[in-house]
Amino acid sequence: MKLKDLPIEVEPLAGAMPAFRASVPTSGLRELCAQARARKARLVALWGSDETRRGAGYALHLALALPSGLLWVSLPLARKDPRYPGIADIYPAANRMQRACADLLGICPDGADTRKWLRHGAWPGDAFPLRKDFDSSARFPQQADRYPFVTVAGEGVHEIPVGPVHAGTIEPGHFRFSIVGEKILRLEERLGYKHKGIEKRFESMTLEEGAKLAGRISGDSTVAYAWAYAMAAESATGTEPPRRALALRGILLELERIANHLGDLGYLANDVALSFGFFQFSRLKEKLLRTNARLFGHRYLMDAIVPGGVARDLARAGAEDLVAHLDAMRHEVVTLQSIYDEHAGAQDRFIMTGQVLPELAERMGLNGFAGRASGVKHDLRVDYPIPPYQQLDPVLISHTRGDVAARVLVRFEEVFESMRLIRALVQDLPPGEIRSAMRGPTSAGGVGWIEGWRGEVLIALETDAGRIHRAHAHDPSWENWPLLEHAVHGNIVPDFPLINKSFNLSYSGQDL
Amino acid sequence: MYQILKQIAKTGIVTETSPAPDEALRTSAQRLGEVILKHFGRALAIRHVDAGSCNGCELEIHAMNSPFYNPEQLGIKFVASPRHADLLLVTGPVSRNMETALRRTWEATPDPKLVVAIGDCGCTGGIFGESYASCGRVSNVIPVDVAVPGCPPTPAAILQGILTAIDPGRR
Questions:
Q1: Which residues contact A316 (CB under 8 A, 6 or more apart)?
Q2: Closest B-chain CA to A512
Q3: Do residues A138 and A83 lie in contact, with contact meaning Cβ atoms separated by under 8 Å?
Q4: CA distance, residue A304 to nearest chain B CA (Å)
């Protein structure tokens, strides 16, 4: 079939989410991207794969978000010296993804930034972990790890290197600040410290086994990943999950959104010395986690979503328990929001701090709630309303100022909206089964695309007779990390933790 | 201010009783003497190191610092530098990209020191195991005194692991 938004031939993928696959020659890549960009299509992900065992060479893959759905484009590359024209000038977010692809598969972009990204010293530059002939248990001696940071020169300029081990209880990464006095002139991030070979691990697994690993790509987004993975596996096998399971997945995803926003709202107050807010929100979050454990068997809802449906049903009494809990909590969050709003000290630190303006956000592909706080009006639940969101009319919450205060406001409003969605889902829970049997082993592709609490989580899956040939997991942090470098410009160093927390990006999800 | 005070009064004190130490969590005969542990007893400084986790264990360490568990009432606090720490709380399978950083953090922690490995990955390498990119469990890289299983372990289990590490036990 022909696509509505772009003049290319596509094959629709199975499943409720509108998704299409297309094959394009490498020579047409830049032209396709330029056309897509002109039509306001967003780059969701870029990754590669080794197809040499399938009688071909390598392949480059792109996922683009079009008004009509998700377009998965594959481009065949040569077996010897696989290269393609880089697209980071068209889609800036592609820069780090292209470099990761080069590190893992030796697929190189022409005319582009050739610095390594995920590779530090754990394997040599001529070994490529995601190639099929790479032995995953290989252990190389640590290599020298040189990374050319950009240096800023001038009178009074100096550098502060931070990390990988940070001062707080957070994930590891390196931040190189160039500063004058207290003011940040430049921030350069170096990530990849948590790279633990997740994508290679997938390739030794069956479709069923992969679900558990998917739920551990980024612990705070375990529901979003598990759902995206299940959606991809269902799409690849043509399995349709029961309606009750979809409604329960919606409840789980919104619970994850609420829990994360509550936690961060507490930490944001902590970072501006309003420890009252920290203790109140950590108390509310803990209570919610205990409710999760009571109703779904896990505080963070890990392994609650499985390919074909969900692992555990919600009984009538449990549903009432949940609604009562949320009603009581709503009341408290309203009170706390008014305290935050009226607290001059907190607002003074929040307003105009760490600003990302809409034009830049749109150009760089900022997504999720941070994107919405900078005027990028996308939310998969709204843009592609598939069950269970179809009947609920989710409200897209946005702001245009793009500062810490805007991200705080969007988070508060999203908490309330998620509470409304859960209530609606609980009240209208369809009867029936919670899990469909997965259909037989196939050799096919499928995608899962979910609006997690942080942003869009994508899983692209290809199977060979029921085993995973390639599973690519894409975290929204890929696009959002570079914006943090911009958000801190001109701010003072002590505001960095606050700005960082207002985005709260995933290290594990992007390091893979 | 009135709203803040009202909310504080309404909330009251939510802190619960802390768990007792559990000998089963000990990985080996403790390296530190009873006398030293007695001194750590009520003033323990912890440095957390995420050596490659999925971030799930960090969520539970955060939760352990919520008012429900309140480890500060036991004299336990988190510090910003390994040089100020008595105990390292390490999560994750140790990624090979974090191997050097973890070893250096351990070396920067003054003796006598304790190490508590958190989570299934910290105990065994978990679902990620050992590979070109992962060293597996924490004890493959630095010595571990106590290992707390769970995916992720609950805040109470983490606190119990810490208390076990500083408990002289049945030596």
A1: none
A2: B54
A3: no
A4: 13
With H, G, I as helix, E, B as strand and everything else as coil, classify residue A77. strand
Best mutation target among A116, A120, A169 (most B Cβ atoms within 10 Å) is A169
Whether the CB of A388 is below 8 Å from some CB of chain B: the reply is no
Q: In which region does residue B10 sit, left (phi positive, over 0), alpha (psi from -120 to 50) or beta (all else)?
A: alpha
Q: Whole-number mean pLDDT of chain A? A: 94
Query: In terms of residue numbers, what domain contains B131?
Result: 18-166
Task: Identify the band that residue A429 occupies on the pLDDT scale cut at 50, 70 and 90.
Answer: very high
Phi/psi for A88 (5° steps) reads: -70, -20
Q: What is the DSSP letter of A388?
A: T
Would residue B171 count as lying in a domain? no
Domain CATH code at residue B124: 3.40.50.12280
**Whether residue B31 has pLDDT greater than 60:** no
Report if residue B13 sits inside a domain. no
Give CA separation, A309 vs A226, A248, A384, B149, in Å: 11, 9, 20, 28
Other CB atoms within a 10 A radius of the CB of residue A448 amount to: 29
Domains of chain A, start order: 11-110 (3.30.460.80), 157-190 (no CATH), 198-511 (1.10.645.10)
Q: By 3-state DSSP, what share of chain B in percent is helix, strand and coil, each rounded to 5?
A: 40, 15, 45
